[in-house]
């Protein structure tokens, strides 16, 4: 999320938005409630400076639920944009079941695209980094979907199409909510209200600084 510019290209920063083979240690823990519908609008902050935004919007198409995630990170020095990161992806689910995701990432002009679709043989991945088939229960990491955390499902990265190695811990917070801590390829902390709604997020950058989401 040294100076602002060198820390931005970190692999972890693209995961501001959206993932893994999680360890099964927490699979037996109590299930997190499914999040309530409602859009999310975040300001992306680093060292007290506003460097971007992350918006997640939901819409219906018949029985399908579409989640559109858009991350834009454009830190500035003396008013001049010194780095540009954009990540846009659309995930389609039906009754909570993953159907497909389409992702496009622009990192300073380098474009990476990934498409994934659930098929009878597994999740078919097509993208800039090649093609592969993942196991049928694989899902993308969508930070607003806590029921996927803690080993509940193997999760793949929406910018790579590859499974990720993440470790999870879970703890209760005030008001009946839950705090998830993620370690491994991404070091992040996420809070959810008792109804499963995403309420806070922070992630560690390469230089050790912390990127924090604030409600817009």
Q: How many strands appear in the DSSP assignment?
A: 18
How many domains is the backbone divided into? 1
Q: What class would the helix/strand composition place it in?
A: mainly beta
Unreliable segments of 5+ consecutive residues: 1-14, 17-32
Shape: globular
Largest sheet: 14 strands, mixed
Q: Roughly how many Å apart are the termini? A: 17 Å
Q: What string gives the helices and strands in order? A: HEEEEEEEEEEEEEEEEEE
Strand order of the largest sheet: 1-14-15-16-17-18-2-3-4-7-8-9-10-11
How many helical stretches? 1
Cα gyration radius (Å): 17 Å
Question: In percent, how helical is the residue content?
Answer: under 10%
Short description:
The protein has 216 residues and is mainly beta. It has one helix and 18 strands. It has one domain.
């Amino acid at each position: 999320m040294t100076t602002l510019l060198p820390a931005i290209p970190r692999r972890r920063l693209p995961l501001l938005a959206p993932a893994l083979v999680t360890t099964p240690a927490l699979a037996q823990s109590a299930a997190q409630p499914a999040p309530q519908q409602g859009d999310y609008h975040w300001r992306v902050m680093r060292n007290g400076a506003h460097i971007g935004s992350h918006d997640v919007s939901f819409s219906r198409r018949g029985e399908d639920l579409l989640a559109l995630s858009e991350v834009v990170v454009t830190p500035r020095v003396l008013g001049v944009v010194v780095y540009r990161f954009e990540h846009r992806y659309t995930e389609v689910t039906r009754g909570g079941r993953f159907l497909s995701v389409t992702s496009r990432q622009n990192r300073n002009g380098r474009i990476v695209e990934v498409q994934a679709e659930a098929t009878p043989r597994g999740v078919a991945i097509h993208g800039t980094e090649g093609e592969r088939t993942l196991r049928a229960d694989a899902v993308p990491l969508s930070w607003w979907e806590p029921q996927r955390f803690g080993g509940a499902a193997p999760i793949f990265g929406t910018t790579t199409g590859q499974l990720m190695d993440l470790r999870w811990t879970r703890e209760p917070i005030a008001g009946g909510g839950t705090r998830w801590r993620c370690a491994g390829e991404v070091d992040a902390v996420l809070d959810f209200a008792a109804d499963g709604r995403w309420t806070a997020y922070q992630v560690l950058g390469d230089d050790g600084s912390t990127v924090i989401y604030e409600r817009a």
